[in-house]
Design goal:
The chain has about 475 residues and is α/β, with parallel strands linked by helices. The protein has 17 helices and 15 strands. The radius of gyration is 23 Å and the shape is globular.
Length: about 475
């Protein structure tokens, strides 16, 4: 009997085909969500292929040729690539009308019916966890009996009841032989220089987060948290070490350290196996020092955490649940323990003032490396609902191509925002310049002596020019590529 062919596609792809290089990737990690779904379908008897077009160097035509031979094509839909997802669905159906195009992902969770009205090439939307729902869809069960989907029937859009969460996520895994080669993704670009050269695998071993941050697009997990057991995590790590020679693991869990007992058991199990690997996890400001010490002893090289703001007023405004003191205490503890720290900041938070930004800026001297992002709006976050209630946005924005793919909270779009996009661009550059000058040792550890010195001098010269040198440099780089 012929097996069902399923093609799963990460919808990040290049529209312009010129200049694609197979050794250059804009992705930091493989599409782990598709890996879980693909492995579950493969284990259920399907023939599965997973595509990540940018790191694999695939053109749109390459994708379409592969889609021609599939019975079902699944597309991931994220807010910043929603139009790419819709365009790809249209191209697939345009070549082969009988293809069944399935869309899943966080952007489709609340906008499922609107997406199906907008893009008639989408046949089915899977809401929430995809493993069991996708298995039922491709097995030919009548759609009316499948929970967690929205679909078309006789010209109507039908939304079935939600599906409960998967019972035990210990039963879920990724077979990395189904995934694009790990070499496409390289090392952890935010890790210490020596670590970046290690063969790296990327894992996500929990789902959800119980916290209530108002900007976070995590609501499809219903503010719950479920996790793989400690032994199961180390089993997976050992398999990747033995099969692929992995030396370093980066965990993408929103909050690896939520369950203290699980973390301590994981660290003990990893030490007992003596795998000789390093890893990175995401923690939270206020994490217990004993947890940090246990992680370090088990091989943890680096920890990242969402700082977001240095202003207690802003932290309360966005319901972060942390304080500036907790942030500073956590940095201090990490340094004493010997952990490399990666911080994440957000600018243009709701009601943020220049004074609030200055408080955030003062924290950039503490992490070994960091990133700064402008607040991006996602559908049906608490802050989105607040903006919607004030009439500053509505669901039509997600289907209006006059808006950019990434909708940032700036004055150009939102009357209540405090800053323009140009002001925020300078804030982000200045944050790095400030950290270079206040913490040059971290700069040299990150970029080596020559790279660090060049950045230090650039900061000194460009601060009075408010980013003009940086703008010229970016135009030069863009011209080369």
């Amino acid at each position: 009997m012929k097996s069902t062919k399923v093609l799963l596609i990460n919808s990040y792809y290049r529209r312009e085909l010129s200049g694609i290089r197979k050794d250059v990737s804009s992705s930091h990690s493989p599409p782990l969500g598709l890996g879980y779904v693909g492995t579950y379908l493969r284990d259920s008897g399907c023939e599965v292929e997973i595509l990540d077009p940018i790191p694999q160097g695939l053109s749109v035509e390459d994708i379409l040729v592969k889609a021609d031979s599939a019975d079902y094509v699944g597309l991931s839909c994220y807010t910043d690539i929603r139009f790419q997802c819709f365009e790809l669905a249209e191209k697939i159906k345009g070549r082969k009308a009988e293809s069944v195009v399935i869309v899943g992902g966080p952007h489709a969770f609340y906008l499922d019916e609107a997406i199906m009205r907008y893009c008639t090439s989408v046949d089915i939307i899977i809401r929430g966890e995809g493993e069991e729902t996708a298995r039922e869809v491709v097995s030919g069960i009548p759609l009316a009996g499948i929970r967690g989907i929205t679909y078309r029937q006789d010209g109507k859009i039908i939304r079935n009841p939600d599906r409960p969460f998967f019972g035990n996520i210990d039963d879920l895994s990724i077979d990395y032989s189904l995934m694009p080669d790990l070499s496409f993704y390289g090392g952890d670009i935010e890790a210490p220089m020596d670590t970046r050269r290690l063969k790296t695998a990327y894992l996500i071993e929990s789902r959800g987060c119980p916290f209530q941050c108002s900007y976070c697009a995590n609501d499809h997990w219903k503010r719950t948290w479920r996790a793989t057991s400690a032994v199961k995590i180390v089993d997976k790590m050992q398999q990747l070490v033995e099969r692929f020679g992995v030396q370093y693991f980066r965990f993408y869990d929103d909050l690896f350290t939520l369950d203290r007992g699980r973390v301590l058991a994981f660290c003990e199990e990893l030490k007992n196996r003596n795998l000789g690997v390093n890893f990175r996890v995401l923690i939270r400001a206020g994490t217990d020092r004993k947890i940090l010490e246990a992680l370090k002893e088990a091989g943890c090289e680096s920890v990242g955490f969402g700082i977001e703001s240095g202003s207690d007023r802003m932290l309360r405004r966005v319901r972060k649940g942390t304080t500036r003191k907790q942030i500073l205490d956590t940095f201090k503890a990490c340094k004493e323990v010997g952990l490399w720290t990666v911080g994440s900041f957000i600018v243009s938070l709701p009601d943020e003032t220049l004074e609030d930004f200055q408080e955030t800026l003062s924290l950039t001297r503490y992490p070994d490396t960091f990133m700064v992002n402008t607040l991006m709006i996602f559908p049906y976050t608490p802050f989105y609902n607040e903006l919607k209630g004030r009439g500053e946005i509505d669901d039509d924005v997600w289907f209006d191509r006059s808006f950019p793919n990434r909708i940032f909270y700036t004055k150009e779009t939102f009357p209540s925002a405090s800053f323009t996009l140009k002001e925020l661009e300078w804030f982000m550059i200045y944050a790095f310049y400030y950290s270079y000058i206040r913490n040059p040792l971290a700069l040299f550890r990150n970029h080596g002596f020559t790279g660090g010195l060049l950045r230090y001098v650039k900061a000194l010269l460009d601060i009075p020019l408010k980013g003009k040198i940086d703008a010229l440099y970016n135009r030069f780089i863009a011209g080369r590529y």
